[in-house]
Write a structure and sequence with these properties.
The complex is a heterodimer of chains A (about 55) and B (about 425). By secondary structure, chain A is α+β, with helices and mostly antiparallel strands. Chain A has 1 helix and 2 strands, in the order αββ. Helices cover about 50% and strands about 20% of the residues of chain A. Classes of the chains: A alpha+beta (about 55), B alpha+beta (about 425). The interface between A and B is large, with 47 and 75 residues.
Chain lengths: ~55, ~425
């Protein structure tokens, strides 16, 4: 019996969590604008090599 | 001192739409580059009527009453003679009496004069339209928020330093639980790395305005300040250098992390060598659009060159909780139907609670309940983290620091 109650409670919490996630995603996409820019154009001539001397770029 | 129209003598303002100075009275349009360079007179004559009035004596009574210190100076408007209050780092502001722009030349002396400026390309109307289109069209808005007109829209030039330099580093990256490691040797150069240098402004807010195309900057001319507000830099060279180095390392490390091609990779050792040198002092444009609600004012920023908009609009608690409750009810109905009709149909046949024990022996409901509980925990954690991130962004938009920076200026211009 307790297991059934726990199961139901967990199911309700899962549904509430999904609803919360759904609303949070809508708010993030529609109400929030602008994020940290990924533009790193100020960095030039980036070069990298691993220890085996295989160039990565 | 304001730039006057050669035709009618009225003050002129820089208009981003025309990329020229426009007379506020007769509409005369003049390229600022063709105007005679009157600025040099003020740089070379320190005794021009730019000295502030000493208001310490008149304020002594206020200090006794309020215990506050004022950090403003009083200047005389060159157009109407009215008294203009200018705070410690402003270099251009508007006269509250005649509305003309006043430039404080004594604050942009040869030593402290910006090298370059990026003029406004986005007009005030375009900035307001961008905010309305991108942010005010959001979901779950409080009633009436979408119809609000911005109460305060100010174009402000923000001071930045630019840095050039080189960085090199040898990093050891370890991949997740396998502990497989790679060693990378990387190097890069920096050109025009931007560092905001105004202590009155929140760095996290201005970071969202970037990127700016610094190559489009022109030589500094006070003509471009006409019609806008601006500040000079007021951070110590050491602090600015520290901020630049931190920013350079962050950009470099993010690029190095991508080389592992694995999101679980982390650097366990790093020995960077960084040399950065300050190469310039530049003013960059931004529009500050403030919308007041009964709860709090919110200030949205618009990049004055590219039109990039940043900010988070508030939401109605009633609408959000109502939607969550409705969605929960729908999902629960679907899940309940799935479990009772499809997965465990025999549950419906239980009429005596004591007989319920027989279904537990099967083990199915235990497993399902366990899975649901784990999934519920994961989903709730993800949802709460997303919401907390949103709350932080909303707090930044409603930041009092940004509001004071935009609002604490002369002139009630819209």
């Amino acid at each position: 019996m307790i297991l059934i109650v726990v199961g139901y409670a967990a199911a309700i919490i899962a549904c509430a969590g999904l609803a919360l996630l759904f609303v949070a995603n809508i708010l993030r996409m529609s109400n929030s604008y602008g994020s940290e820019s990924e533009d790193h154009s100020c960095m030039k001539r980036f070069k990298c090599m691993d220890v085996d001397q295989r160039p990565r770029l | 001192m304001a730039k006057s129209c050669p035709g009618c003598g009225a003050p002129m303002e820089y208009d981003p739409g025309f990329d020229s100075l426009v007379c506020t009275s007769c509409g005369n349009i003049i390229d600022p580059k063709t105007l005679p360079d009157a600025d040099s007179f003020y740089y070379e004559n320190d005794d021009a009527d730019e000295k502030p009035t000493d208001i310490a004596d008149t304020l002594s009574e206020f200090e006794e009453l309020t215990g506050e210190m004022y950090d403003r100076n009083v200047y005389k408007c060159s157009q109407c003679g009215g008294e203009v209050l200018v705070s410690g780092t402003e270099i251009s502001t508007r006269c509250i009496y005649c509305g003309s722009t006043s430039v404080v030349f004594s604050r942009i002396s040869k030593e402290n004069r910006p090298d370059k400026i990026v003029p406004f390309s986005i007009t005030k109307e375009e900035a307001i339209e961008t905010v309305k289109k991108n942010i005010l069209s959001g979901a779950f808005m409080p009633r009436g928020f979408k119809k609000i007109d911005p109460e305060l829209v100010r174009g402000i030039y923000i001071p930045y330093f630019t840095y050039d330099g080189v960085i090199s580093d040898t990093q050891q990256h370890v991949i997740g639980v396998t502990e497989k490691s790679y060693v990378f040797d990387g190097s890069a150069e920096f050109e025009n790395l931007l560092v905001e240098c105004c202590t009155a402004l929140d760095d996290r807010s201005t970071a969202l305005l970037e990127p700016y195309n610094v190559k489009a900057a022109v030589d500094f001319d006070t003509s471009y300040l006409m019609g806008f507000y601006s500040n000079i830099q007021d951070v110590t060279p050491r602090k600015a250098q520290g901020t630049a180095e931190l920013k350079a390392k962050t950009i470099f490390n993010s690029q190095m992390r991508m080389l592992s091609k694995n999101s679980t990779a982390r650097a366990v050792s790093s020995h960077p060598k960084l040399e950065l040198e300050r190469t310039g002092y530049i003013l960059l444009p931004a529009w500050f659009v403030t919308i007041s609600t009964k709860d709090a004012p919110y200030t949205f920023l618009v990049n004055g060159q590219s039109g990039r908009c940043t900010g988070t609009a508030p939401w109605s608690k009633v609408k959000v909780f109502g939607t969550i409750a409705a969605a929960t009810a729908v999902l629960w109905t679907l899940l309940f139907t799935l479990l009772t009709k499809v997965a465990f149909p025999h549950i419906n046949r239980i009429t005596d609670i004591e007989k319920a024990d027989y279904i537990i022996i099967g083990g199915g409901p235990q497993i399902v309940a366990g899975i649901i509980a784990v999934v519920a925990g994961i989903i709730l954690t993800i949802a709460i983290r997303k919401l907390l991130r949103l709350f932080r962004k909303l707090k930044r938009t409603g930041s009092v620091t940004t509001l004071i920076f935009a609002k604490r200026r002369q002139g009630g211009v819209k």
